[in-house]
Design goal:
The protein is α+β, with helices and mostly antiparallel strands. The chain is about 15% helix and about 35% strand. The strands form seven sheets. It has a six-stranded antiparallel beta barrel with strand order 3-4-5-8-7-6. A six-stranded antiparallel barrel has the order 9-10-11-14-13-12. Strand 10 and strand 11 form a beta hairpin.
């Protein structure tokens, strides 16, 4: 048989004579194949997407991380979502992040229904939205979830690309399944499925269907290539939905360990006293205060995690695929235990460890929804160092941010050795006043201590500025031997006027302690 534009047709070839019954039997099977080609798919038979897929209209407003009492201009966006059991709408977190107002509408209907965000998981880019008017759900059909799709299988992406009044459906093929970066936070990695079904702005949050069931949520595309889109698959969705059953979202945990694929080198394996043929990854270090800090050490060799053997690339066989070993941890909820097998000095060890956040004091993750924390003392504005603040330098922030902040951002694991540190604090802005005319050179520097008190988190500033040293405020910065020195009495007197002049919400200075 060969394939043509009209479907399957018999190839015309010269052949020897065959018995008549074989000819009719072959003809019967041929028409059966034609019937299979024209029979409606399960997706078409269960085309409930028209009563399941909805359009979201969102008004969003971001925060200003340099002068954090301010906000940026409002913006409007369109996204997609779909009904699941329990009168809930599943969509992307990036659709509803920093939302100030949210509406939902059905296909071909002008009426818009006010809605609210019930749960949001920014790390996995998923959210649950609920419509306040329960009449909205009367004629809606919740979609069910299916298994992880197979590579080379067909899927249909539904949503409202670029807006529109009707649901758009595009078909594509699953081309790859792997662990990759989720663009919403630009830091978290989870399982994702690549497809060539068109995914455009507005599609985000729409269901990806196979045999009438949801196998993913459309959420991002690859701008540097044609027709490459990604969906969040059901293992990630299942984790999110299971997590929120207790009424709150905890998120995805990690092992808290840094590894190296050193066993490809036989000499390295011999150096670690491993038996020939042992596969796994070498531990290079653990995150400070992590749940594995007291269990794993440098040069330990992880060979098994949960029920899965680890190969020399740090991969495991799971879901019938070869994926990063982090996928074994992703099956667990925060607080659950996972078993490890590792070798130390050639000796086999086992341990059961708790899956936890296990993050350094400064993560690569972008933050959403929560207003930035700050303190303002006589015009000295302090904020926490995070991805959002560093991105205020613009598109070239990686190269444009001050050297020491870049050093903190990229080398925080080796730089910070104090388990008491919760975050880094930076002097983000100095509001103009005669008090601080000569102090502007200290802007954008990370704080080491104030009046002799180490600053391990933003709240430490409250106690530190409640005292002074011989009538002065003395502020020292990381990587800078020159301190900022201000007259403490003048600062306290000028504080209310400075805030009023610059329209900063008034907060009293900490009580002065002698």
């Amino acid at each position: 048989m060969r394939k043509s534009d009209g479907g399957l047709i018999p190839s015309i070839v010269h052949c020897t004579a065959v018995p008549l019954w074989i000819f009719f039997l072959s003809l019967f099977f041929f028409f059966q194949m034609l019937s299979a080609q024209t029979e409606p798919s399960a997706f078409a038979q269960e085309a409930t997407f028209e009563k399941s897929v909805v359009q979201l209209s969102i008004v969003q407003q971001e925060y200003d991380y340099t002068t954090p009492w301010k906000k940026s201009a409002m913006s409007r966006g369109i996204g997609s979502g779909f009904i699941i059991e329990g009168n809930r709408i599943l969509t992307n977190a990036h659709n509803v992040s920093n939302a100030r107002y949210l509406e939902v509408k059905k296909q071909n209907l002008a009426k818009r229904y006010p809605a609210g965000v019930q749960f949001v998981g920014h790390d996995c880019d998923l959210a649950i939205v609920t419509v306040f008017d329960l009449d909205f759900y009367k004629d809606m059909v919740p979609l069910e979830f299916g298994p992880l799709p197979q590579v080379n299988s067909k899927v249909q992406t539904c949503g409202f690309p670029l807006g529109g009044r009707t649901v758009s459906v595009t078909e594509g093929v699953v081309s790859r399944i792997e662990v990759g970066i989720y663009s919403h936070t630009q830091a978290d990695s989870h399982l994702l499925v690549q497809t060539d079904a068109a995914i455009n702005p507005g599609n985000s949050g729409g269901p990806v269907l196979q045999n009438g069931k949801v196998v993913g949520v459309a959420f991002q595309g690859l701008q540097s290539a044609d027709n490459i889109g990604y969906m969040i698959p059901t293992p990630v969705i299942d984790h999110f939905l299971e997590d929120i059953k207790d009424g709150r979202y905890d998120g995805f945990g990690s092992l808290g360990v840094f590894t190296f694929e050193g066993l490809h080198n036989p000499a390295y394996a011999q150096y670690l006293n491993l038996q020939e043929g042992t596969e796994g990854v070498v531990v290079m270090g653990t995150i400070l205060n992590s749940s594995v800090e007291s269990i794993l050490s440098r040069n330990d060799v992880l060979t098994k995690i949960g029920d899965f053997d680890i190969d020399n690339d740090g991969m495991i066989r799971i879901y019938g695929l070869v994926l990063d070993m982090s996928e074994a941890v992703e099956q667990k909820q925060i607080g659950q235990m996972i078993d490890l097998v590792f070798y130390r000095d050639g000796q086999k060890h086992t341990a059961s460890v708790k899956v936890d956040y296990n993050e350094p004091v400064l993560t690569f993750r972008k933050e959403f929804d929560l207003p930035p924390r700050y303190r303002c003392f006589a015009g000295l504005t302090f904020v926490t160092v995070n991805r959002n603040y560093l991105e205020t330098w613009g598109r070239n922030s990686i190269s444009d941010i001050p050297f020491y902040l870049r050093y903190i951002f990229y080398d925080v694991q080796s730089l910070n050795t104090d388990p008491q540190r919760k975050e880094y604090v930076v002097l983000s802005e100095i509001l103009s006043d005669t008090l601080t005319t000569y102090a502007t050179g200290f802007i954008q520097q990370a704080v080491e201590n104030v009046n002799g008190l180490p600053i391990m988190n933003l709240e430490d500033l409250d106690e530190a500025f409640g005292k002074d040293v011989d009538g002065f405020w003395i502020i020292k910065f990381l990587g800078n031997d020159t301190p900022m020195i201000l007259d403490a009495q003048q600062a306290r007197l000028r504080h209310p006027e400075i805030l009023k002049t610059h329209e900063v919400p008034f907060t009293p200075l900490p009580e002065h302690k002698l």
